[in-house]
Amino acid sequence: MIFVTGGAGFIGANFVLDWLRTSDEPVLNLDALTYAGNLENLAALQGDSRHVFVQGDICDRALIDRLFAEHRPRAIVHFAAESHVDRSIHSPASFVRTNVDGTFTLLEAARDYWSALDGEGRAAFRFLHVSTDEVYGSLGPNDPPFAETKAYEPNSPYSASKAASDHLVRAWYHTYGLPVLTTNCSNNYGPYQFPEKLIPLMIANALAGKALPVYGDGRNVRDWLYVGDHCAAIREVLARGRVGETYNVGGWNEMPNIDIVHTVCALLDELRPDAAGPHARLITYVADRPGHDRRYAIDARKIERELGWRPAETFETGIRKTIAWYLANQDWVAHVQSGAYREWLARNYGERRA
Ligand code: NAD
Ligand code: DAU
What we know:
Elements: E1 2-5, H1 10-22, E2 27-31, E3 51-55, H2 61-71, E4 75-78, H3 85-90, H4 93-115, H5 119-124, E5 126-132, H6 157-176, E6 180-185, E7 188-189, H7 198-207, E8 212-215, E9 221-223, E10 225-226, H8 227-240, E11 246-249, E12 254-256, H9 257-271, E13 283-286, H10 301-307, H11 315-328, H12 330-336, H13 339-349
Parallel strand pairs: 1-2, 1-4, 2-3, 4-5, 5-6, 6-11, 7-10, 8-13
Antiparallel strand pairs: 9-12
The structure holds nicotinamide-adenine-dinucleotide and 2'deoxy-thymidine-5'-diphospho-alpha-D-glucose.
């Protein structure tokens, strides 16, 4: 079986669902079920013996040791993290704990388990670390996109904690020979994304007739990738990636935030028109994110050259599917909009001035 961490979150849940749609190899899924983890994401797997869910913390070494010993996985795919940049600005401690200490704990537990495997098991074992393009810092308008050789220049507590975890993974390979793989991916969107992130937040607010808060001048650029394409890239890297290598994963799809918001509004105008007028009337410019990276873009030629992976979705097809999913799953959205979610909105947006 494979051992997935963070498999009740946005990308992890999409990965587990896709994995079990395309393979019968069981999944051990460890997730702490923080505000971002949600077992509803995995409802389709209820009663499916190929999915073993354990609620627990990646910082809990005794638990990780027990899970390795009981389930004998052939690989670990590590998604679990604190993932939201704005939250890392308000409360960085949990980012250092989960992203740095948690990754360290997993690496140490994996090293002990892997060291005791027989020759064949040792050779086949993989530790795949799921990371982000934000570790590379911010690009100017004419800079080339991030290649795997780009120096790390993280600018937020989130990206600094992910950069630290990437460095630990690299060191465990070079020092101990642990067979690691790292992926650095650009912005994902798609089903089950928590509505604190740009696209689902805009969909949820637009449907509720609330302001659509655009940070700064709205010209910050991200490289958007449909989540299913990210999951396919991870499967390829796990199957055939070269041990010790990193692979950048991106959508070849750079867009300024304001264009994303206008696209979401236009699709909602088509699919769920609002009698009060076009959804774009709700766009509201608010104070910028501190240290806001201006532009990210991924050079995804290495993964295409070595593993033949390219995104299957265009932004047009991916965003249409995503909006259709949110429209069809308003109950899911309502359930995650708990008291804690509303407190977060008040904290992050309450004091932003236009
Ligand atoms: P998410 O916040 O939606 O999910 C994170 C999951 O990790 C949640 O289910 C949460 O309960 C779990 N978790 C958090 N702390 C934990 C702990 N201490 N122990 C066990 N589980 C814990 O995040 P996501 O957007 O799905 O991102 C998944 C991974 O992909 C992260 O490592 C993130 O850095 C990386 N990534 C995300 C994006 C993106 O656009 N969302 C892009 C590139 C890389
Ligand atoms: O690049 C990969 C990263 O993408 C991942 O590693 C992170 O886990 C993921 O959260 C995401 O980070 P971003 O900060 O780019 O995503 P977010 O959706 O928070 O914001 C996208 C852009 O939209 C960013 O420039 C900030 C802007 N924004 C965001 C929110 C939430 C707004 O203008 N208004 C908002 O309300």
